[in-house]
Amino acid sequence: AQKITQTQPGMFVQEKEAVTLDCTYDTSDQSYGLFWYKQPSSGEMIFLIYQGSYDEQNATEGRYSLNFQKARKSANLVISASQLGDSAMYFCAMRGGIQGAQKLVFGQGTRLTINP
Amino acid sequence: EAQVTQNPRYLITVTGKKLTVTCSQNMNHEYMSWYRQDPGLGLRQIYYSMNVEVTDKGDVPEGYKVSRKEKRNFPLILESPSPNQTSLYFCASRPGGAGELFFGEGSRLTVL
């Protein structure tokens, strides 16, 4: 079975600092995809970044990057130069291979608070 | 504008009163899915649909029904809601192959 673990229920960071949100995963699939979503207080789910298991380079999207360490089964989200608007809930998710391809498995989430 | 639209966004109901949460997408996506979000549990899949007339159970299907008669619509039906179905519900869609899920804005349901 596939599993995502986010061990940080909450994080508090000073504005403009970089922040790393932890995500570890467990799967026996060789082919899988890892996603990060942001959920602001308004409730919608916003896609941030994607990493495929065969991608050799770490994914980047603007201020977001994904620190993908395949051997350690970790897919940490790094936000550079944090802003007040980054305060939100962040979810790590995985889509597995053939058997798990039809759903995203989500972690419990990390609530990030950016302090001015 | 490409979007997934859910209705109602907020609903308070009573135990046993049938309700339907509608979901519609305008992106011609083959795949649609329903999730529920509960504190400390993240999002869990209820049902999904690969295409018209093709639906299957997710991880937490008990107490829910779905149908996919048209490509754009994927309603979630609670035949006899119970308090443990109080939750935030999300509909999502994506093209058939892969890629990220596009989520609706969520429907907050309270069952008294």
Strand tally of chain A is 12
Low-confidence stretches of chain A: none
Query: What oligomeric arrangement do these chains adopt?
Result: heterodimer
The rough form of chain A would be described as globular
Element layout with pairings:
The complex is a heterodimer of chains A (116) and B (112).
Chain A: E1 3-5, E2 10-14, E3 19-21, E4 24-26, E5 33-39, E6 46-52, E7 60-61, E8 64-69, E9 74-79, E10 88-95, E11 105-106, E12 110-115
Parallel strand pairs in A: 2-12
Antiparallel strand pairs in A: 1-4, 3-9, 5-6, 5-10, 7-8, 8-9, 10-11, 10-12
Chain B: E1 4-7, E2 10-13, E3 19-25, E4 31-38, E5 42-51, E6 54-57, E7 65-66, E8 76-78, E9 87-94, E10 102-103, E11 107-111
Parallel strand pairs in B: 2-11
Antiparallel strand pairs in B: 1-3, 3-8, 4-5, 4-9, 5-6, 7-8, 9-10, 9-11
Structural commentary:
The complex is a heterodimer of chains A (about 120) and B (about 110). Chain A has strands at about 5, 10-15, 20, 25, 35-40, 45-50, 60, 65-70, 75-80, 90-95, 105, 110-115. Chain A is mainly beta. In chain A, strands 2, 5, 6, 10, 11 and 12 form a 6-stranded mixed β-sheet that branches. Chain A has a 4-stranded antiparallel β-sheet with strand order 3-9-8-7, with no helix packed on it. Chain A is globular, with a radius of gyration of 14 Å. Chain A starts with a strand and ends with a strand. The model of chain A has no long low-confidence stretch (mean pLDDT about 95). Chain B is mostly beta strands. In chain B, strand 5 (about 40-50) and strand 6 (about 55) form a beta hairpin. The radius of gyration of chain B is 13 Å and the shape is globular. The chains are: A mainly beta (about 120), B mainly beta (about 110). The interface between A and B is medium-sized, with 19 and 26 residues.
